[in-house]
Amino acid sequence: MTENPSRLEELIARLTQVESVLMHLQHDVEQLDEAVLQQNQIVDTLSKSLKLLDSRLGALEEDGDGPDPVQDKPPHY
Hints:
By secondary structure, the protein is mostly helical.
């Protein structure tokens, strides 16, 4: 089961190449993970802002004491 030196060198070179590709893939996965986390934070922030604006809009609609701008004509008519 002895292999000739050139075959062994070839296997070592291939293993080194596989390890190099794996390291690059791990780096890419880490970068993608960071990007997903940042986007998740942005989505959370925007979601909170949207809920706040929705509640403010609901409060304004409930306070409908003022004139209806669609129904009321301006004074120059």
